[in-house]
């Protein structure tokens, strides 16, 4: 008891004697908009580095330091460096405005016109800016421009060569599959992307490779904030959107809506060699409509309390149609599959934050309700081996979380939090009977509940930032197949540690190390023992005995920033246990059966190198290279199941942005995905060039954009997959040389005041 009292007294005393601090907001001198992720450094009067940090999403900075005289320096790309001698006594408040750099073309560099990268202790933050090549597009186009992320022909994304990545929007996942989610988010709503390859304990442990968190624009100004956009492309797609915000001293209101017509098409060829050979030609077309509506309210009753309410609704409907012509020996058959899908999602959000003595000491409550309805139909023309069918999935998710942050003293900060989440999935499968009427053949009621708690301590020892964390998760998953009287039940309790170190040698050199433990829990589709048949030649069967896989991950990175050059090399190592692998074989009817199983251990390693060079005020160059390899570490019996005992891939991205005049910019990007190998597949290289131009009008309030995707029409996906007794070749050529145009207009007045609420993350099911 005496030791506990002494500990409490020491903490209170340390807070008292170390209450000296310097804080403020960093803004653009012209627009008065806050500048997030600006570098803030305190130096001794001799010029020696003492302490540093970055501004948050709202441009706020806060440094606790002993009383004394110091040199304050603030830097951000596109702005002149700011320096000021300060004397810290008590809580010093110092707001800073940065002046934009002026180029040789007498142009002021506007923040947000180009992508910038900030490396934090546990994640990389990419401010995507007003990316020319993504203008008028969706989140898919934004992610395609990022070298850390790879995409395939189906819209699936990979991080470090693996699709086992958790994708969030504003810290929250969606009930939709990743490709559905990315298609419905307009590119102009995206502010930045967090690529978290070494997540700390504050993040959910699901997702072996890491987390991709897409942060959308949430700024509301004092006064009126109006934005409108319109666009189209040569495929016949088009889009339009409008948003309006109105801010007062203590209340902000916002409302917005958008519509997107999505059209894609392509031709494919698939052939099987070995048992039951065939050749299949197909034409694919996608026709979608996405309606979005959102509204929100922020209330600032006083300097210590903030409230937010938000509602958003999305109606994402599309038809996925495929024509097949198949040859099996002398038999030639033709078929058309019609897949109309309807996805409707309604989200309600609430957030409250209470500040104590400063912006770094707060308590926050966050709650979200999500109601998602999905109607997935499959019609075969003419009728084949399988009947027309329909799946109705209704998902309801509720989440409540609390977080507490407190700087114990100028060198130690504590973070702690708790999350409760409950998800219910009601899934019904109907098939057409002999009378042509749909009747129920299966119903699944699935409940998932998670209780999670974390604690993180962050401190600084000399020039080394140290962050250690521990997360505990209790996860329950129960699935009842009503008609079959079958139950799947899983209960997992796991503890996940994390450790991050960052050493700042001086203003230019930073070295970081990260370790964490992650998991990938089997999804319902992977556990479902009932056969799911998408067409007459392929079925999927889940494995109810599947166990979670775990990974131990280590990463070492280096950052160099000086003048016109930035360099970011990194290497990583990943050890997986209970590795979940897809397995394919032919049944007696010659149908391809796909299932999953735990096959043992794998070791993965790789690295990346990103370089940015700004040789002149009118030219920006970005070059990135990523390499990933994963090797099987199993006994010979298990290893024989693989076609390859390793998988590897690499990619290169080279971007050039040119300022042709005060109002005209151009961008050209080369993307190269090298030949890749998997345990059961190989893929040929994918190579394409995209270009675009932007013209600014009306003093920058209006932008006209024209882009040409896949300039030389080279984008083609060629794969070979292997199964027991056969292999299959596939060749898919999308209609990829597309000209797009867009026009955006914005009108703003007043100072931006934005909520400081944290980006929460939750988990949810996935509906294809």
TrEMBL record:
The keyword Oxidoreductase does not apply. Belongs to the TonB-dependent receptor family. Keywords: Cell outer membrane, Membrane, Receptor, Signal, Transmembrane, Transmembrane beta strand, Transport. It comes from the Bacteria. Residues 1-19 form the signal peptide. It is a multi-pass membrane protein. It is found in: Cell outer membrane. Residues 137-210 form the TonB-dependent receptor plug domain. Pfam families: CarbopepD_reg_2, OMP_b-brl_3, Plug. Its main location: membrane. This is TonB-dependent receptor domain-containing protein. Residues 354-745 form the Outer membrane protein beta-barrel domain.
């Amino acid at each position: 008891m005496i030791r506990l009292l002494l500990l409490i007294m020491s903490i209170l005393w340390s807070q008292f004697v170390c209450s000296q601090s310097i804080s403020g907001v960093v803004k653009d001198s012209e627009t008065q908009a806050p500048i997030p992720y600006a570098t803030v450094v305190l130096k001794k009067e001799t010029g020696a580095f003492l302490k540093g940090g970055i501004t948050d999403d709202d441009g706020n900075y806060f440094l606790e330091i002993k009383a004394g005289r110091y040199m304050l320096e603030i830097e951000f790309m596109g702005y002149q460096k700011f320096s000021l001698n300060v004397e810290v006594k008590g809580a010093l408040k110092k707001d800073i405005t940065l002046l934009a750099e002026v180029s040789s073309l007498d142009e002021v560099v506007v923040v947000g016109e180009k992508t910038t990268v900030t490396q934090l202790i546990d994640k990389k933050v990419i401010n995507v800016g007003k990316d020319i090549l993504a203008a008028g597009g969706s989140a898919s186009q934004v992610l395609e421009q990022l070298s850390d992320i790879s995409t395939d022909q189906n819209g699936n994304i990979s991080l470090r060569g693996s699709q086992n990545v958790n994708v969030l929007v504003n810290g929250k996942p969606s009930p939709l599959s990743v490709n559905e989610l990315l298609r419905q988010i307009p590119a102009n709503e995206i502010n930045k992307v967090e690529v978290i390859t070494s997540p700390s304990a504050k993040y959910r442990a699901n997702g072996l490779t890491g987390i991709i968190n897409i942060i959308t624009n949430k700024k509301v100004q004092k006064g009126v904030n109006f934005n409108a956009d319109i666009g189209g492309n040569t495929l016949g797609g088009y889009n339009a959107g409008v948003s309006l915000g109105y801010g007062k001293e203590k209340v902000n209101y916002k409302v917005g809506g958008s519509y997107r017509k999505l059209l894609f098409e392509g031709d494919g060829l698939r052939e099987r060699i070995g048992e039951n050979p065939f050749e299949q030609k197909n034409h694919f077309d996608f026709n979608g409509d996405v309606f979005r509506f959102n509204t929100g309210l922020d209330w600032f009753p006083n300097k210590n309390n903030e409230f937010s309410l938000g509602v958003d609704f999305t109606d994402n409907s599309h038809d996925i149609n495929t024509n097949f012509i198949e040859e099996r020996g002398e038999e030639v058959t033709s078929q058309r599959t019609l897949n109309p899908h309807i996805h409707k999602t309604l989200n309600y959000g609430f957030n409250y934050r209470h500040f104590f003595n400063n912006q770094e000491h707060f308590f926050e409550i966050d709650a979200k309700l999500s109601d998602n309805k999905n109607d997935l139909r499959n019609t075969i023309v003419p009728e084949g081996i399988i009947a027309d069918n329909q799946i109705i999935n209704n998902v309801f998710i509720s989440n409540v979380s609390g977080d507490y942050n407190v700087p114990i003293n100028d060198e130690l900060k504590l973070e702690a939090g708790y999350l409760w989440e409950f998800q219910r999935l009601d899934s019904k499968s109907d098939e057409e009977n002999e009378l042509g009427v749909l009747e129920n053949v299966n119903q699944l009621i699935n409940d998932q509940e998670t209780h999670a708690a974390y604690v993180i301590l962050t401190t600084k020892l000399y020039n080394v930032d140290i962050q250690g964390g521990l997360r505990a998760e209790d996860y329950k998953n129960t699935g009842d197949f009503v008609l079959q009287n079958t139950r799947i039940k899983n209960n997992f309790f796991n503890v996940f540690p994390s450790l991050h170190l960052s050493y700042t040698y001086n203003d230019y050199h930073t070295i970081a190390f990260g370790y964490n433990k992650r998991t990938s829990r089997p999804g319902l589709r992977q556990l479902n023992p009932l056969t799911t048949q998408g067409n007459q030649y392929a079925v999927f069967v889940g494995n109810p005995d599947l166990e979670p896989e775990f990974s131990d991950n280590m990463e070492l990175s280096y950052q160099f920033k000086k003048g016109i050059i930035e360099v970011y090399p990194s290497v990583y190592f990943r050890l997986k246990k209970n590795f979940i692998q897809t397995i394919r074989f032919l049944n007696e009817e010659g149908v391809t059966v796909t299932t999953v199983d735990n096959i043992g251990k794998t070791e993965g390693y790789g690295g990346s190198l990103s370089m940015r060079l700004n040789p002149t005020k009118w030219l920006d160059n970005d070059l990135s290279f990523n390499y990933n390899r994963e090797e099987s570490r199993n006994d010979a019996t298990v290893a024989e199941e693989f076609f390859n005992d390793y998988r590897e891939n690499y990619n290169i991205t080279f971007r050039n942005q040119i300022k042709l005049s005060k109002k005209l910019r151009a961008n050209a990007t080369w993307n190269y995905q090298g030949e890749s190998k998997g345990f059961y597949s190989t893929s040929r290289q994918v190579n394409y060039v995209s270009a675009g131009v932007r013209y600014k009008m009306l003093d920058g309030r209006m932008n006209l954009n024209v882009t040409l995707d896949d300039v030389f029409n080279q984008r083609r996906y060629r794969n070979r997959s292997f199964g027991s007794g056969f292999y299959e070749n596939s060749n898919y050529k999308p209609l990829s040389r597309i000209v797009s145009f867009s026009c955006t207009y914005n009108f703003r007045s007043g100072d931006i005041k934005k909520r400081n609420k944290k980006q929460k993350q939750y988990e949810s099911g996935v509906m294809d």
